[in-house]
Amino acid sequence: MSIKKEGAHKKWAALKEKLGPQDTDQSEANLENAEPELCIRLLQMPSVVNYSGLKKRLENSDDVWMVQFLELCGLDLLLEALDRLSGRGVARISDALLQLTCINCVRAVMNSHRGIEYIVSNEGYVRKLFQALDTTNVMVKKQVFELLAALCIYSSDGHGLNVKNQQYRFSVIMNELSNTDNVPYMVTLLSAINAIILGKEDLRTRTQIRNEFIGLQLLDILDKLR
């Protein structure tokens, strides 16, 4: 019996060797030790494989690596790609998956101290992040609102950055809350509203923001959700 098992193992090993790269896990690019320059080049070839590999590299990077990545416009490339993908809609599953893996890379940048500081100090990035809400992909919008909420909590100017240039402040988030029946998405939206209100230390400003939400029928929507 052991001889048969040994023979089977040898056949399996030979088959794997014959298959070569086709039998390896190609779900993500191997960027474990990649320099920022290589990652930038790969970003110019958007794919789920490249984004997934980059996400892992970003999560495991040190401050020096992250700063180099940002200075080489890595975040710009991610947000520009996200904007292009949002403009396509989600007619194809492949585009939806690309959007998700791309926004996951942005999240990985924001999860680093250097990354979130870089975003907060550059209003253009927050504006580009806001533009990513122009999509029908609820999962992407959910993650964008989570990131915007994090900015509100991290910086006292966070919500000001988020809503600047909006004709009616907070109308975007309230429209989303009114028109969705996706419970996890509702929770994210309500958490974002809470973060916007609590993001300001001044009680008077908090009250003003809260009243703006009430003016947009927040209480009526909450009653419907109960």
From TrEMBL:
Signal sequence bounds: none
UniProt cross-references to InterPro entries, sorted A to Z: ARM-like, ARM-type_fold, FH3_dom, GBD/FH3_dom, GTPase-bd
Annotated ranges, domain GBD/FH3: 1-226
SUPFAM superfamilies according to UniProt: ARM repeat
GO MF annotation: an example: actin binding
GO biological process, one term: actin cytoskeleton organization
Coiled-coil ranges from the UniProt annotation: none
A Pfam family this chain is assigned to: Drf_GBD
Name of the protein in its database record: GBD/FH3 domain-containing protein
Source organism (scientific name): Pavo cristatus
